[in-house]
Amino acid sequence: MKQEIITTNTSKFWKTINNYMVLARLTKPAPIFLLVFPGFWSIALNTKTSPFNDFLNIIYLYVAFLLGAILARSVGCIINDIADRKIDKLVERTKNRMIASNQISLPAAIIFALLLAVASIGVLITFNTFTIFLGLIGAALTIIYPFTKRFTYYPQVFLGITFSFGVLMGEAALNGCFSVPTILLYVACVFWVIGYDSIYAVQDYKNDKEAGIKSIVVAFGENIQSVVGYLYLASLLLLFAIGFFINASFVFYLILILVLFHFVWQVINININRPSMAGTIFSYNVYVGLLIWLAFLIG
């Protein structure tokens, strides 16, 4: 009997741990990379010309940006679930989320988010003042984002602005300022994020439309394929422009051509009548982020 009680308690403990990992989306790591790559791009872009070129310090930047992305994304997801706890119940894909399905209480979720936020701030304060300032702005935007779908059809634009802050923080951590290539990279990243998040929103198109939830996909419907195509084109053109600014090698442009092929494949396969495919396309943007990072590293 005692052994059964221990086994039951152990099972409940690990189930609780798993529930909190699901709440923080740690069981779905792809978006973590999507959030961290903008910072990685910026570090790789600016390291070659930065006086802050000590190898160990650069490694620290990569590790800190990765840890910061994990924590910030987790906090953002919990805030999103808190804000959308009633809406999530109306959408097939999200009705079983931890808060919406009452598997984790609202007070417990808030406490967990606060703990992760404190840990995130702990990472942030290791940077210079300018980077900390940018991080706090990014945190404010993260809190605001979940509510944008209530008053605009373009929450993806707001997410693009927010998710791309790593680009600005990358050079801020290195140089304490912004260069023209970094500004161009930020705008390119915004277009990229809007594009892939629009694809992500295709998964919920029918439910969102029925529930009156706003998104760029609901606004454009069947034309979302063209919209994403133009967004990806704008992002890619800006990346090519950055290559001219930094006198990039042939390898840089060759990798961007691979990105072009990937973008074309994504756009061709967008179909609001095949929502399950949208999730797969969205997740493949991890490879796009990796390719662009490699372009800046070795190009």
Brief write-up:
This protein is mostly helical and 299 residues long.
Can you characterise this structure?
With 299 residues, this protein is an all-alpha fold. 76% of the residues lie in helices and 0% in strands. It has one domain (2-298): Orthogonal Bundle (Tetracycline Repressor, domain 2). It has helices at 2-23, 30-47, 55-83, 106-124, 129-148, 155-163, 165-175, 180-202, 205-211, 216-220, 224-245, 250-268, 275-283, 285-298. Helix 2 (30-47) packs antiparallel against helix 8 (180-202) and helix 12 runs antiparallel to helix 14. The N and C termini lie far apart (65 Å).
Which helices and strands appear, and what pairs or packs with what?
Layout (H helix, E strand, L loop, with lengths): L1 H22 L6 H18 L7 H29 L22 H19 L4 H20 L6 H9 L1 H11 L4 H23 L2 H7 L4 H5 L3 H22 L4 H19 L6 H9 L1 H14 L1
Helix pairs in contact: 2-3, 2-7, 2-8, 2-14, 3-4, 3-5, 5-6, 5-7, 6-8, 7-8, 8-11, 8-13, 11-12, 12-14
Structural shape: globular
Q: Provide the CATH top-level class.
A: Mainly Alpha
Along the chain, the helix and strand elements come as HHHHHHHHHHHHHH
Cα gyration radius (Å): 20 Å
Kindly report the average pLDDT value.
89
Report the strand count: 0
The amount of beta strand, in percent, is under 5%
Low-confidence stretches: none
Question: Could you give the distance between the termini?
Answer: 65 Å
- The CATH homologous superfamily name equals UbiA prenyltransferase
Number of structural domains: 1
Number of helices: 14
The fold-level CATH name is: Tetracycline Repressor, domain 2
